[in-house]
Amino acid sequence: MLRLLSFALFLAIWWIAALFVGGVKLPSPPAVLQVMMAEAASGALFLHLGATLARVVLAFVLAMSLGSAIGYLMGRVKLADRLGDPWLILLLNLPALVVIVLAYIWAGLTEAAAIAAIAINKLPTAVVTLREGTRALDRSLDEMAAVFAMSRWRAFRHVVLPQLAPYIAAAARSGLSLVWKIVLVAELLGRPNGVGFEIGVAFQLFDTPRLLAYSLTFAAVVLVIETLLVQPFEARSTRWRPRAA
């Protein structure tokens, strides 16, 4: 109910602001909705949304897989931590725009370059989170697994992974929020489709209704995925933790 009220308040403020600013700079909600419907009817909206979502999924899975493995290794092995820490600091502080531009220069304006650039920007956050989660593992549980002669896989599956689940959820949520932003920049700079590409075209044409139509549709998809997938996964992964009174 509160979410609906906040949404209604947002629409009211937007509509009032559009009356004062003017439709050229800030079109009203009905004007933007009209563009959304036209783009959806032509199929262009779903085409570009699908392209963006495909890049998000591929880059996210790649970054989470590599980041989790590297983070776990750095948390377990001191030598790996010492060798990887300088590179981790570099990637954490390297601007996303630099990574994207270099990827396009070195690999060309290809799909692989775009996905790799997005994944590289997300990778260090996953590594840091999983490294800290691995460092926080309860060593006494490792000893218990050894006493009961559990295989490495069973110990990892039943002892280590449940402890890492909250950190995996945190890395997924923070990383996904980053990927949503980076993918639009990558599309704006070097892809012939996607929401970022359409936003770039709308900017060049000074087509504010079209720009807002794609931006708000993208934001709505992000909100739905966050509500239906990310938040339930995070709640499930931390369900064993005691709740505050």
From TrEMBL:
It is a multi-pass membrane protein. Its main location: membrane. Keywords: Cell membrane, Membrane, Transmembrane, Transmembrane helix, Transport. SUPFAM superfamilies: MetI-like. InterPro entries: MetI-like, MetI-like_sf. The chain crosses the membrane at residues 87-106, 211-233. The keyword Oxidoreductase does not apply. The keyword Transmembrane applies. Residues 49-229 form the ABC transmembrane type-1 domain. One of its GO terms (cellular component) is plasma membrane. It comes from the Bacteria. GO terms for biological process: transmembrane transport. It is found in: Cell membrane. Belongs to the binding-protein-dependent transport system permease family. This is ABC transporter permease.
